[in-house]
Specification:
By secondary structure, the protein is mostly helical. Helices cover about 80% and strands about 0% of the residues.
């Protein structure tokens, strides 16, 4: 299904406009779902990491001490992989929205808003999905760097 190419001289039909708005809405919902999943997974991994750090000092059985060491070493890697892969999927949806805006151009039916908000509003709205994964990435990198330094 290929959306119509719209020249600047012609306006989008109502059907084309609705189609493109729905595509934008779908991608926006994907960004929200992916960001929610990222925050949930990172919270789970960071909590597990904190519990594991505390558990390794208090382990009574040697086998659990070994498991704690494995978890302390693997949870930061899992956090990094999860963060980067989620970030890529978020950027994929943002890129798709950019393509849809390009297809729509600046044309839209009279008395209706553009397919998507103006540039500043879009950038402010996307600051969370763009910056939150970077925060988690920084945390995991700081944990890994701290382990190498200590």
């Amino acid at each position: 299904m290929t959306p119509p190419h719209v020249s600047p001289a012609q306006s989008l039909s109502l059907k084309e406009y609705v189609f493109l708005r729905e595509e934008i809405r779908h991608q926006d919902n994907l960004v929200n779902a992916r960001l929610s999943w990222l925050v949930s997974s990172q919270s789970f991994l960071l909590s597990g990491f904190a519990v594991t750090l505390n558990g390794s000092a208090q382990s009574l059985l040697p086998i659990y001490a070994k498991l704690n060491v494995i978890l302390v070493n693997s949870l930061p890697a899992a956090g990094l992989v999860t963060d980067v892969s989620s970030y890529l999927t978020i950027w994929a949806a943002i890129s798709r929205m950019r393509n849809i805006r390009h297809i729509a151009g600046s044309s839209h039916p009279p008395r209706l808003p553009p397919v998507q908000a103006d540039r500043l509003t879009r950038q402010l709205g996307l600051s969370g999905p763009i910056l939150i994964p970077l925060v988690f990435l920084t945390v995991w990198l700081a944990i890994l760097a701290g382990r190498w330094i200590l």
